[in-house]
Amino acid sequence: MDVSPDSDETRNLSSYDSAYGEDVAAILADPAIQGAVEEASARFADRFYDALFRRDSTSQILSRLEPAEVAHLKRRFAQHFALLLSPNLTKYAHYSWARKIGVVHERIGLDLPTLLEAYHSYQDEVLALVRAWLPGDAQCRQRELLASALLRRTMLDMEAQSLSHDEAHGKLSAIISRLTRLVREAANPADFLQGCVDTLARVDGVDVCLVARPDSQGVLRVEVIGGAVGVRYLEHIGSAGCPPMRVRGRGAIANGTVAHAWRDGVPQVCAAISLDATWEPWEAALADLSLRSAAAVPLVDESGQSYSLLLLFSRWPSFFNAIARWDMLRHIQQLLGHSAVRIEHGAVVAASQREIYRRRLRDGAVRMVYQPIVDLQAGTVGHLEALARLVAPDGSIIPPGEFLPALGNNDLLQLFELGLHQVCRDLHAWRDGVGGWEPSVSINLPADAITDDAYRDVLLETVAKAGIPPARIHLEVLETQDCVSFDERKGRIMALRSAGFRVVQDDLGSGHSSLLRLNAIPFDGVKIDQGLVRSAFEDPSRALEFICHLTALAKNFGITVTVEGLEDPALVEAAAVLGAEQGQGYAIARPMPAEEVLPWRERFRWNIDPKSPRTPLGAFAGYLLWGQQHKALEHWPELVGHFVRFPCAVQRYIDHHGLQGSALQELLKEHHAVAANGTSSPEFRRTGHDLKVLLGLHWRQQRAIEKSA
Fold first, then answer.
1. CB of 273 within 8 A of CB of 279?
2. Rounded to whole angstroms, what are the CA distances from 120 to 85, 116, 178?
């Protein structure tokens, strides 16, 4: 038989030399011994596996194999036993062969203690054969020599198989280390997911690894995939007529690996897909890919609810049942769960759709649109925000909420470069047009782009080549997480400002960390989070008070404030009354192609006077400022008396709309009367609260009338 598989001659096996010497080979070459080897090997393979079937731990593993697979294992083991008795066997060939057998045993979940116990019977069988083949006293020396040699060979066999187990476990530890580093370093959600999948696909025996999230219908959509047959899995499952995996809603999977993992928030394994009835709808398609076992690891949020699923497949039955791999699954769940929560609220983007978006980006199918930003105090337009859109093959526009979650760091850099080139081109076009308009333009940067040399180089080279003054480019930085190197980030921002660019912090108020950075990093401007602004539709009092305090905070630092998300004229007026320098939102203008900007600017008219509000929200904002001024004077009672007698913003709103004698007018009079005595009385707090409630009610009524018109 062939006894020279790939040999590993890098390991020192000199202690086993005596088991492979010429004298041992001469004994084993005896025709009588070799004539009995085949029968003895087959008999021993049957006994060896019969013993494994009688053990509870191993019988469960072997029972998950199909009869043909058990027969194959027995044949391989018989060959291995015959190899042990070959006169031509070398120590390195034997070692290499045993390593391969060890890999098979490790991957189907036969642990080392079980194998070592089985090897004791292995040795007993070898000694019995030696005694049967060399029974006479004259053969005593040969018998002792052969017995010693074969025992040494079985010891090498056990060492090699043990090493296969140890190496497999060592590789799992290395995988966990890689994932830990990825969790610590990855900032981009798309890169983070793909990095996790690619890392887990390196586990020997994992053939498919994917991350899926349920869409609005509860159907799991594969977002990223990896592994030796990952792409084939997607294609085959899609073309084989398999039903979708649904984890919630009507038709959700009730039982099985995926259902229990999702519902219970605990990793689940399937040792043999062909023996699990819950996999029946997908069994044939998975069998075509030789996928035999599966594991489902739910990623859960802080409340313990599953929001994403890591799904792994292997061609080895019982692969994920091994203790070391089960421990790995639990560790992965803990490691990735809270780290991957950053993707929880993002759009679900199927892997196939991700590739379409990336292909469109590579083809340069990017179109920049522009949303005007108005000076809320002067009513002029001298600034725009550039917003990227992808163009679909049919010419339709793909909004950023759909394609941005699919882009990794390299994709985002390419998007920035393409967008910046268009911005520079459009700035030239506006300058060369009628009136020679020269606005400034904001362009968005990912949070970690500030410290990325590639972004800096693209920015400096593109702007210099286009001949655009850096002051006309504003860089909006979305702050979403704490910086790895705070000092480096601060230094990079200062360097960009020194080069003439303006740096603006986006989404102020969306997180505690952004407020901390406001004082520590030298931003030129801030944009108040539009989610906070839009909350005014549900709770105008809370939203306007937040905007009021954030605006005052930024202005105290000498930073320009832009309020975005202004989707109602009353919100525009309120932002102006509160002192914000700039405003942006649908109530002013929607994003538009570059060629529509100049015509829009010609038509634009400003009719807001922050000193004389015309809307209930404008009056509300004026009241908040009045309250701050009133409180600042409370240590000078004589000044308070004069202050409350002057008409306030709410009174000017009442006068403009002819609301004298209304409930609002009477409440304002009562409030001013008690305000003359300071801010500490219960009457002052009650009338102030009622005044804000009534102004909020006026606004809701006004909006209802406008909607019905």
1. yes
2. 17, 7, 38
Residues with Cβ within 8 Å of 609's Cβ and at least 6 positions away in sequence, in order, are none
DSSP 8-state class, residue 482:
-
What is the spatial distance between Cα 683 and Cα 691, in angstroms, rounded to a whole number? 12
Q: Which of 123, 105, 114, 117 is closest to 44 using CA atoms?
A: 123
User: Could you tell me the pTM of the whole model?
Assistant: 0.72
Q: Which long-range contacts (CB under 8 A, 24 or more apart) does 513-522 make?
A: 513/479, 513/481, 513/482, 514/479, 515/553, 517/479, 518/553, 518/554, 518/557, 518/559, 519/557, 520/486, 520/490, 521/489, 521/490, 521/493, 522/490, 522/493, 522/494, 522/497
End-to-end CA distance of the chain: 92
Specify whether the CB–CB gap between 206 and 340 falls below 8 A. no
Distance from C-alpha of 508 to C-alpha of 497, rounded to nearest angstrom: 20
Q: What is the CATH number of domain 189-348?
A: 3.30.450.40
Q: How far apart are CA 706 and CA 192, in angstroms?
A: 46
CA 700 to chain centroid, in Å, comes to: 39
DSSP per-residue codes, 658-697: T-TTSHHHHHHHHHHHHHTT-S-SHHHHHHHHHHHHHHHH
Please answer whether residues 679 and 631 qualify as being in contact, where contact means their C-beta atoms are separated by less than 8 angstroms.
yes
Give how far Cα 38 sits from Cα of 32, 34, 73, 149, Å.
12, 8, 16, 19
Q: Tokens 């639990």 appear where?
A: 330
Q: Do 189-348 and 352-603 agree at the fold level?
A: no
Give the Cα separation of 549 and 538 in Å (integer).
19
**What's the token pair of residue 43?**
């008999």
pLDDT digits (tens, 9 = 90+) for 637-696: 888 888 888 889 999 999 999 999 999 999 999 999 999 888 889 999 999 999 999 998
User: Between 3.40.50.720, 1.10.760.10, 3.30.1380.10, 1.10.490.10, what CATH number should domain 14-172 receive?
Assistant: 1.10.490.10
Residue 277: burial class (beta carbons within 10 Å; 0-12, 13-18, 19+): exposed
Q: Are strands 473-478 and 440-445 parallel, antiparallel or unpaired?
A: parallel
Estimate to the nearest angstrom the gap between the alpha carbon of 148 and the chain centroid.
58
Nearest residue to 334 (alpha-carbon basis) of 265, 258, 263: 265
Whole-number Å distance between alpha carbons of 182 and 55? 41
Is residue 577 exposed (0-12), middle (13-18) or buried (19+ Cβ within 10 Å)?
buried
The domains of the chain are located at 14-172, 189-348, 352-603, 616-708
Helix, strand, coil content of the chain in percent (nearest 5): 60, 15, 25
CATH superfamily of 352-603: EAL domain (3.20.20.450)
Give a three-class secondary structure readout of 271-314: CCHHHCHHHHHHHHHHHHCCCCEEEEEEEECCCCCEEEEEEEEE
At 524-580, the pLDDT tens digits run: 998 988 888 888 888 888 889 888 988 888 888 888 999 999 999 999 999 999 999
Residues in Cβ contact with 607 at an 8 Å cutoff, skipping those fewer than 6 apart: none
